[in-house]
Amino acid sequence: MCTKLTQHMDSAKKAIETGDYFDFAENIISALHLSKNAKTVQILYVQGLMEFGDCKKVFKVIENLLQKPTLSNEERWELSERKAILFWKIKDFKAAKLIYEELCKSNIIGVQIKGYGNLAPMYIDQYIYEGKFDKKLLNEAVVNSSKALALISVHDSQEMYEKILFNLWTAHWYNKNFSEALSVIKQVLQLSEGKNYRALIGMAETCITLNDYNSAMEYLERAEKLSLFDSYYQDYIKLVQAIIFNECQDFSQARECLMIAYDNYIQAGAFYEAGYCLQYIIALDYIVNSEAIGFMISKLTSPMANIYDLKGIQPLKV
């Protein structure tokens, strides 16, 4: 019986890694039955449900687990963090904030880091999502990122340290504190030895704000080579390249980049991002067409104008 349980749990874990929802569901249900809903199996169940985005079901499982008196403090904190992530996903920022603030009060340093570390990007997301552009949220993001950095060493977890720094850069960038943003993103690049493609993109975006388009394009080219297997950032790089081409008045190149990203977003079902690309494409077409119409009008209204001078227009033969 125990061997079968272990096999089903191992298969469920593998299904999470490979993204096979049906295989996960089949094995986790068998594991729950064999273990009589044991705590460890339910925690794995929560992990899988979150990975596959079944928010409604995972809420119920987490609530049931939190009622168990046998939970360790670490397990309780971990489940609380997952619950906060769920609230964040459905944009209930107030509920997520309350949980993260409780995590910050923990006597476990690692839990505190997760509390402060997650509050920062949540505030940034709230700033963008609500559309009110309340700078207080960005200031809170800076404060919480700084608190998380004060508790963690790069030697504890370089990956987490880089993520916290990246969130700090994002807050400064949105707050238009570009000198601070540049300083922070340079730290991320230095720590990763130039291999963090998210940081390379961030460096490019910072260079754009400083009108250094050549450097921005160089950073994007480096990021493009490192992110070959990350389709999300491959498409995002195209968007940033489009911004550079647009700033340099190269509208045809800008449009070409946007069309690539648009097609990929449509295929991936990312319709929000596709809509953003389409709006940008329409705006570019308007600019190009307006310039063309302006040119034609100037030719037609010129004293020396001849309609047959216009490229592509030929006189009709009678």
Can you offer a commentary on this structure?
Helix 9 runs parallel beside helix 11. The chain is globular and about 80 Å long. The model is unreliable at 303-318 (pLDDT under 50). The longest helix is centred in the C-terminal third of the chain and has 31 residues, at 271-301. The protein has helices at 2-18, 21-35, 39-51, 55-66, 73-89, 93-104, 109-130, 135-151, 158-174, 178-191, 197-209, 213-226, 231-247, 251-268, 271-301. It has three domains: 1-68; 72-191, Tetratricopeptide repeat domain (Serine Threonine Protein Phosphatase 5, Tetratricopeptide repeat, Alpha Horseshoe); 194-308, Serine Threonine Protein Phosphatase 5, Tetratricopeptide repeat. It has 15 helices and no strands. The chain is mostly helical and 318 residues long.
- CATH class (first level) name of the largest domain: Mainly Alpha
> Fraction of residues in helices?
over 70%
Shape: globular
Strand tally: 0
CATH architecture descriptor text of the largest domain? Alpha Horseshoe
Helix segment count?
15
**In angstroms, what separates the terminal alpha carbons?**
93 Å
Strand content: under 5%
Query: Measured on Cα atoms, how large is the radius of gyration?
Result: 26 Å
Please name the CATH topology of the largest domain: Serine Threonine Protein Phosphatase 5, Tetratricopeptide repeat
Mean pLDDT level = 87
Domain unit count? 3
State the CATH superfamily name of the largest domain.
Answer: Tetratricopeptide repeat domain
User: Based on the structure, what is the oligomeric state of the protein chains?
Assistant: single chain
Order of helices and strands: HHHHHHHHHHHHHHH
Q: What structural class should be given to the helix and strand makeup?
A: mainly alpha
**Sheet with most strands:** none
**Low-pLDDT sequence parts:** 303-318
